[in-house]
Amino acid sequence: MKTVDGRVYADRAELSARVGYRGDATLRALWADRDTNGHPPALKIGQVLHWDLEEWLSWFTEYQRKHNGVDYGGDPDEELGPAQQARVLGVAGSAIRRYRKNPPRGWPSPARTEELAGGRIREYRTRRQLWGYADSRPRAGAGGRPPAEGPDPKVVLAAEALAAEPARKLGDLAAALAARHGGGVSTWRRAVTAARRQAEGTDPKVAVAAEALAARPGAKVYELAEELAARHGWSVKKWKEILAAARKQG
Predict the structure, then answer these.
(1) Which of 31, 46, 69, 104 is the least crowded, having the fewest Cβ atoms under 10 Å away?
(2) Quick count: other Cβ atoms within 10 Å of Cβ 185?
C-alpha cells in the first residue's frame, strides 16, 4: 500500500486480499463497469492503478448491500428466530438449519438460545449480527453448504438472478453473483450463460421454478412457493401457479 497526502492507497491485489477474494477477476469486472456502478476513481502510482482505501471500502460495502439480497430494515438489536434470520439474509430456511451443523466462516454465535419441547434448542440472532455476517466477505460457500446433487447450484442461483433482473448485462450480473457468493467472475459468466440457454423460450419465472423443483424433488409445493416468494417478491399463490406450470413442462 502507498500513502499519498496522508491517504492510504491500495492496488487491486491488495483490495482483493482485503475483502477475501483469491484473485482479482471480480474487482477487474467492477472497474470495467465503473460508468454504471459508481466505482471510485483510480490514482496511477508508477504504472499501477491504486484506489483510496477508505473510499473504496465504503463504496464496496454499499455496492455489496445493493446486490446481496439482504434486508437491512428493522431494529438492529431485535432477536430473530431461524425463519426470520432466513428472511433477513434472503436464503431458504434450510440454509439456517445447515449452518447450525456446518457453520460457514463468520457465522455469528447465537445472541441467546431457547429450549423447546423434546429438548430441541432454538437459536436467536440479532439483525445487527446478521448484517455484520452478510457484509463480511467471502460469504457462505462450501463451508455452509454440503456438496449438491443434481442441478449445478451456480446455475440455479444464476437463473434466480436472471428472473429477478432479466435485462441486466451478463458481465454485471456475473460480477454481482461473484461478490455475493464468492468464486470467479468467469465461473459466474458461464453459469449465467448456461441459465440463459436453459431458459430460452421459457418464462424466466418458470425456469426458476423448474430449477427449484429439480433441486428439491421431495419438497412440498407450498414450501417452495413460500421460499421463492420471499426471495423474489411475488405472492405465494403466484409461485404455486408457476410451480404447477413448471411441473407440466417437465
Answers:
(1) 46
(2) 23
- Cα–Cα distance, 175 to 21 (Å, whole number): 12
Distance CA 42, CA 238 (A): 46
| pTM confidence score | 0.48
3-class SS at 126?
Answer: strand
Strand 43-45 with 48-52, pairing: antiparallel
CB 97 within 8 A of CB 82: yes
Answer for the pair 51, 44: CB distance below 8 angstroms, yes or no.
Answer: no
Q: Cell numbers 467472475 correspond to what residue?
A: 185
pLDDT digit string, tens, across residues 14-67: 988 887 776 677 788 888 888 888 999 999 998 899 999 999 998 988 887 777
Axis crossing angle, helix 53-67 with helix 127-135, rounded to the nearest 10 = 110
Strand order of the β-sheet with 121-126 is: 79-80, 121-126, 112-115
User: Cα–Cα distance between 249 and 35 in angstroms, integer?
Assistant: 41
Helix (H, G, I), strand (E, B) or coil at 79: strand
Cell of 228: 421463492
